[in-house]
DNA sequence: CTAAGACCTCACGCCGGCGTCAGAGGCAAA
DNA sequence: TTTGCCTCTGACGCCGGCGTGAGGTCTTAG
């Protein structure tokens, strides 16, 4: 698929997709004339990238993870990266859960009134 | 407590605490000479603020929520704010959960090797 | 063949959440 | 009172994640 289609399929902008490639998060093929061609998997990849970014991951960390996933062998360094980021996401998850619960109680308090 | 103590208690920097006040997220008392004095509750408030910021909330949205919490009456506008932010946090929570699970499987795959 | 639209590569701009000075003033101990 | 640390108020700087042109090329419908 072409970049505009991927953008529409994922909700990302064309600019963002090019930025992701620039950061090494995406590696589309190119046509002879230089136009980007994405495989269907790219949709999931982009959604994944955006969810990581939304959870406070930096693009550099995501690039590390990507390299880790595509390597045949996992180096100790990569292992460390994964573990560190795992700790991050655990914290983010707990924070999100707490925040969600807190909101739920606020909603229970005010939510049944008129709009 | 003074700002340095609050900083140490919360893990935020002094600069960040002043920034939060600037944004209307915190309202410490002042001594006659102008030094900030925080009540013990401020610790929880700061942790709460940081968790919201970490979940992608803007400081303006948090200020709105704060105003909402301290008002005697909840206006429809505030109600809308809370609902919108609730949707945000729901999404963030689901994303975090998915990310966490994905990491868990990665760790299961590589995590039992040597460091 | 042509015209519209999607795409390309620079490259500068923006904004939020602080970091980081500079310079001046509190405050507790000796 | 002096020493040393904490705090104060500006005010500029930085960096990531894009937005937004400018100026040119590709593709495809008619």
Question: What labels describe this entry?
Answer:
MerR_fam (chains A, B), 68% helix, mainly alpha, Multidrug-efflux Transporter Regulator, Chain: A, Domain 2, 115 residues, homodimer, DNA-binding, transcription regulation (chains A, B), two-stranded antiparallel ribbon
Indicate the percent of residues in helices of chain A.
55-70%
Number of helices of chain A: 5
**Radius of gyration of chain A over all CA atoms, rounded:** 19 Å
Structural class of chain A: mainly alpha
Let me know the number of strands of chain A.
2
Identify low-pLDDT runs of chain A. none
* Overall number of domains of chain A: 1
Please give the oligomerization state of what you see. Answer: homodimer
Query: How is the CATH topology of chain A named?
Result: Multidrug-efflux Transporter Regulator, Chain: A, Domain 2
The CATH class of chain A is: Mainly Alpha
The biggest beta sheet of chain A reads: 2 strands, antiparallel
Q: β content of chain A, as a range?
A: under 5%
The appropriate CATH architecture of chain A is: Orthogonal Bundle
End-to-end Cα distance of chain A: 43 Å
Q: Which whole number gives the mean pLDDT of chain A?
A: 85
Order of helices and strands of chain A: HHEEHHH
Q: Strands of the largest sheet of chain A, in order across it?
A: 1-2
User: Which pair has the most extensive contact?
Assistant: A-B, 35 and 35 residues
Q: So what's the overall shape of chain A?
A: flat
């Amino acid at each position: 698929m072409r970049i505009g289609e991927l953008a529409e399929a994922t909700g990302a902008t064309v600019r963002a997709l090019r930025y992701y490639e620039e950061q090494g998060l995406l590696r589309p093929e190119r046509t002879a004339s230089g136009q980007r061609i994405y495989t269907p998997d790219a949709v999931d990849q982009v959604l994944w990238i955006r969810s990581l970014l939304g959870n406070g991951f930096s693009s550099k960390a995501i690039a590390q993870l990507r390299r880790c996933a595509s390597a045949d062998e996992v180096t100790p360094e990569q292992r460390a990266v994964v573990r560190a980021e795992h700790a991050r996401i655990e914290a983010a998850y707990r924070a999100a859960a707490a925040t969600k619960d807190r909101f739920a109680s606020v909603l229970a308090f005010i939510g049944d009134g008129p709009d």
